[in-house]
Amino acid sequence: MIIPKKQNMISKEYTVLEPFTRELWKGLTFKEVKALSQNKSDNYVHTILKKFVQGEILTEKKIGNVIEYVVSQTVFALNTIGYISEFKANQAEHLPHKKIQRLISKIKTPFYCFLITGSYARKKQKESSDLDVVVICDDTLKPSTILSQIKQEAELMIPEVHPYVFTKSEFLQMLLNEEENYGKEVLKNNLLITGAKPFYSIVQEAIKNGFIG
Q1: What is the pTM of this model?
Q2: What is the domain count for the chain?
């Protein structure tokens, strides 16, 4: 899903969900959600959290005397969280969106996730910074095929583009490995341009298999 850059802002309600897009595997308390979403009203945040629980976007979990909220393992929850992630990335004014779309247009497969990582994802890029791009493709495809589709275009661009391509299984395995690796770095620092729902599906599969961040 590519979100038009001039689309109206998302509903204020969904700012309450935005913190969950950053660390899908992590439960958040009411106070954490309120602080991270920068909503000042206790009553508003409480009401919206209850609404998302009723809508099966979030699930409540009691840890001792504290209630944590986590993203539900439903298709609707992933669609919603994915939409918010893509909206945020496609509204980021510091990204070279026209160049990113040129790269995406070279990918000739219906299944892929396209992410920006590195300094551009952290919004700490400099004039000399490279644009780090990650593509996650279906297991039926060879990463080298997709890499060849975008590499020629990438080499002609300024800022210089560094593309990395992984299959779904390769990326999942990186998340499940105990040592720190590039996959975990990408997960913690990214802007999701398109393919957020399948990306979060991979993350949820990793969580089910023991991934805790």
Answers
A1: 0.90
A2: 2
CATH number at residue 179: 3.30.460.10
Phi and psi at residue 99, in whole multiples of 5°? -70, -40
Query: Is 213 among the domain residues?
Result: no
Pairwise CA distance, residues 106 & 175, whole Å: 27
Q: State which of 54, 71, 91 marks the end of a domain.
A: 91
Cα(136)–Cα(116) distance, integer angstroms:
12
| Residue 18: strand, helix, or coil | helix
Cis peptide before 159 (omega within 30 of 0): yes
Q: Count CA atoms within 13 Å of residue 55 on its CB side.
A: 17
Q: What is the pLDDT of residues 96-125, one digit of tens each?
A: 999 999 999 999 888 899 999 999 999 999
CATH number of the domain that 75 lies in? 1.10.10.10
